[in-house]
Amino acid sequence: MKVFRVYVENSVVGGYFDKEFEVATKLLFDMFRKGLFKPVISTHVIKELDDGAPIRVIENLKTIDYEMAEVDDEVLSLAKSYIEEGAVSEQFYGDALHVAIATVSEVDVLVSWNCKHINNLHKIKLFNAINLKNGYKMLEIRNPEEVLKNE
Asked: Are 65 and 11 in contact (CB under 8 A)?
């Protein structure tokens, strides 16, 4: 059985303790702990958490066995393309980095509660058009509820 690699960006990491998102996020983390999905995070996730996340959020991330994706020149170049081609503005460069990391890492899905800059139909189409133009595969972007419903 294939274990899906799931890129987890910060809105999901923090969503574990957010009343609006906690039920689905906790179920997703349970699936990670059971080995049903393989979580992938990045050095960018860690940096964002270190820049002000509550200690309980950081400690909770340590309860799952994740794969670490690095931010390298290829990721930086793709994130720059997202900005240059209007998928996101420079102000939301961090969100572009998450999508670029997930794309370059060839995960099965990026999970996000960020419906403004990452997980909405218009943005997903833009990201994927840029991905295809640059020789990458299309990236699935979903929220945790959508991933769980397909299990």
From this structure: no
Pairing of strands 4-8, 37-42: parallel
- Indicate the SS3 state at residue 122: helix
120 three-state secondary structure: coil
pLDDT tens by residue, 17-58: 999 999 999 999 999 999 999 999 999 999 999 999 999 999
Between CA 88 and CA 105 the distance in angstroms is: 20
Work out the burial of residue 15: count CB atoms within 10 Å of its CB; fewer than 13 is exposed, 13-18 middle, 19 or more buried. buried
Q: Are 81 and 134 in contact (CB under 8 A)?
A: yes
H or E element, residue 139: none
Backbone φ, ψ for residue 32 (5° rounding): -60, -45
Q: Looking up tokens 């990201």, which residue turns up?
A: 127
Rounded Cα gap, residues 70 and 65, in angstroms: 16
Beta bridge mates, 67: 40
DSSP H or E run through 44: helix 43-50
Domains of the chain: 4-149 (3.40.50.1010)
